Amino acid sequence: MSRRYCVRRYLDPYGPNPLSMINTERSAYALLAGGIKQDTSGKWVSTDFSAEDDTLGAPGGKLRIFAAAVLMREHPGNLLITGGGKGHDMPASTIDERPLLADILSQELLECGVPKGRILLERRSNTTFQELQELERMVPAHGFTHLSVITSRWHIPRCRAMVDAKFSHLKELAHIEYIAAEDVLIAYDPARWQKEIADGYAADFMIERILKEEHGVAQIRAGTYNFK
User: Fold this and answer.
1) Which CATH number characterizes residue 149's domain?
2) How confident is the model at residue 87 (pLDDT cuts 50, 70, 90)?
3) Per-residue DSSP letters for 79-126?
4) In sequence order, what E strands does the chain have?
């Protein structure tokens, strides 16, 4: 199988139009954190969808922020769970100076117009697995019965595999669906996003990342994955 063949399915939408999600009383979005970097002014922000930012952690963190803001405008009755602690994909030299993921993401969401009162923050998780652990804790605490997980298209298979393998209780508590940030943005403004996202997924850095993600999914299914 060629390296480029393995990513063809990631160029198509992951599921139905994400802007058409039914808004129910106990629905919540869960925004998973992407990579974090310092911009030219020194401010800590989510990563762009680029080869350069792929070296800093999960690329396309900013796409997740933009998508969450779009969905929160479309569904004003929903709350949004997000946050995190220090994270794990950062140089040791920055660990003391970098704010918590919760503070970085919440500030970006506020700048995108998401009201502060609709954001539920957790400040403990540092990995995808730990984010899911926090969701399993927060969903029953707030009585949510429908959870829409917002992340990158390339990240969904591993996230779903983790939930299937380790979070049966979370699946009992709420109906879970997965929304690709890329699909939200393309549905919302195709002229702005479709080519940029397609070009990104065809690039070498994304091919390599998808191969690593698929290896992680295989390890989860084989029972050899290092959950942490």
Assistant:
1) 3.40.50.620
2) confident
3) EEEEE-SS-SSS-GGGTTTSPPHHHHHHHHHHHTT--GGGEEEE----
4) 27-31, 36-38, 44-46, 79-83, 119-122, 146-151, 175-180
